[in-house]
Amino acid sequence: MAAPPDPDSPPPPPAAAASAASAAAAAEPLPAAAAEPLAAALTREALGDFAPALLLLPATERARVRTLLAYACTLMACAGQDGVEGDRLAQIDRWEAGLERALEGETRTPPICLRMARENARRRWPADALDELAACARRRVLQPRPATAADAGSDARSLARAAGGALLEASLNAEVSGFAGALVRLHALQHLGAAMARGRCPLPADEGETLGGEALGEAVQRECARLRPWLLRAPRGLVELPVPYRRAGVFSLLAALRLLSDVEEAGARLLSAPPHLPPATRIVLLARARWFGLRFGLP
Fold first, then answer.
1. In whole angstroms, what is the distance from residue 119 CA to residue 136 CA?
2. How far apart (Å, rounded) are the C-alpha atoms in residues 141 and 45?
3. Are the C-beta atoms of 89 and 135 separated by less than 8 Å?
4. For the chain, how long is the longest CA-to-CA vector?
């Protein structure tokens, strides 16, 4: 069992960000700027094929998204580690306490928390949204695999509402909440192979205790069928997003629809060859999202 991390050091992050995290955690205390490479790495890990959407945001909003995702990913990394349940819950508690100290002006806190404090000084984070982010991480510890499809959807929408509420300082409408929840579930499908290699499965438990071969392919297709209506209802809600986020929302929707079809077609091959958007496709979708902005006079 791994020892719980020091309260002033980030916990082991997702594999893709491990080297950046090690560098950021090497010295104490660290300025908020020291977390920037870590925040960028965690953002790439979290967004994956949707990372180009950040290019459609103003620089100030892009920094805010990276900061929040770095903090949220750290909480989820705590929840997803191996080890004793109580230790993982304690890590989440320590990160919450570190953020609270940073927001109160203390500087000897993890650099990710210092970045959160710096953004808070520019525009305050809603306290209830931050609380819900931590609550989502704790639910992940206590129930690592959703029992039913309804539970999986509810958990995804809760995480989406917490992150969206923190960024926008307002509640998400039902269509955007469902859309963002679908992105969370789609991300889980893309990483299904890595999760199952660690003995974890994000698919609902009522799909079966052990999934493989044809049964896994059918379970993936059922999940895709559940997510498609969430995506198709998204346009009604995206028009109500704050103007700076609309083009990013359009890109994310176009990318999600393409990826959902690829995931559905892959079926059980997801374990060994999860689909991703080719660079050329990302460029085309960015151009279409920018055209949308020009067409409707968005900045």
1. 22
2. 20
3. no
4. 56
Supply the pLDDT for residue 102: 95
List the structure tokens of 47. 């967004």
Domain ranges of the chain: 29-144, 172-195+208-292
In angstroms, the CA 127 to CA 164 distance is 13
> Contact, 152 vs 185, CB < 8 A?
yes
User: Which of 94, 58, 53, 74 lies closest to 286, judged by CA?
Assistant: 53
Provide the b/e sequence for 210-223 (b: ≥16 CB within 10 Å). Answer: ebeeeebbebbbeb
Q: Supply angle C-alpha 178, 262, 244, rounded to 5.
A: 45
Quick one: which of 23, 12, 28 has its CA closest to 88? 12
**How buried is 267 (Cβ within 10 angstroms: 0-12 exposed, 13-18 middle, 19+ buried)?**
middle
pLDDT of residue 209: 64
What confidence tier does 69 reach under pLDDT thresholds 50, 70, 90?
very high
Looking at residue 214, its amino acid is: E
> CA–CA separation, 181 vs 136, rounded Å?
13
Transcribe 241-261 into DSSP letters.
Answer: S-HHHHHHHHHHHHHHHHHHH
Of the candidates 157, 163, 187, the one whose C-alpha atom is nearest the C-alpha of residue 263 is 187
Supply the DSSP symbol for 24: H
Per-residue pLDDT tens digits for 1-26: 333 344 444 444 444 343 334 333 43
pTM of the model: 0.84
**Spatial distance between the Cα atoms of 105 and 117, rounded to a whole number of angstroms:** 8
